[in-house]
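User: My instructor asked us to take a sequence, write out its structure as tokens, and then describe one feature of it. I'm not sure where to start. Here is the sequence I was given:
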Amino acid sequence: MATITIENEVDLEEPTCIEGLPGVGLVGKIAADHIIDTFDMTYHAAVQCSGLPPVAIYHDEDSELKPPVRLYADAERDLLVLHSEVPIAAESREAFANCVVGWLESNDVTPLFLSGLPKQGQGQTDDEEQRTKIGGEHSPELFGVATGDGTDHLDAAGIVPPKQSGAMSGPTGALLHEALDRGLTSVGLVVESNPQFPDPNASKALLDHGIAPITGLDIDTSPLTEQAEEIQTARQRLATQMQQAKTEESSQATPLRGFQ
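Assistant: Let's start with the prediction itself. The structure tokens for your sequence are:
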């Protein structure tokens, strides 16, 4: 089965979709979840693409079960967010990307794909040391890639291209590959992030210096600094699952040293 089923109708014209799949530092997921919460977005559609785990999700103070991958919508801002509570397995990513990007294309949606670039030298940082760095003065480096006319969005927002060659892998890489294959206009935002721990600071950089300039959204990101430790604790279990998964199951950007 490969369908996206509308659960709650929302009037959208030519929306932007922000992708928030789990990946390195959980940067995309933290950013996407923050947007959903900030704008109190509506649960719009169930993503039922082939290969997704057959699980049902429940949340505290809510008896309604939901699928693990969902689309949220905001009519006022002409906005969609792709939200996932599970990793996307390597063997499922091609079918998943075909399903999702096909739906985006048929509904005139411009996607923003989000990924982390593992920061060199942070892989061995212990948990306590990493917590003290969140919310500090250092802003992680961010760059953009694109398919179709996506470079126009990057240029307008002043987002620079990468400094060196690399590869986008994992589910987000599969989505970008599918967008490229279809000639769909899309943007990929890549932020320097911690490869071992959830990184709210990197997600804040994505929102402040990538998503906001491209979309024009006014997003208050101060909670990502103020609640950084709470966010880290809440996301640590999923981060552990991502570490235990195969490398190709985790969305990330990887430099191509020695292959140019």
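For the description part of your assignment, you could build on this observation: Residues 123-137 have pLDDT under 50 and may be disordered. Try explaining in your own words what that tells you about the chain.
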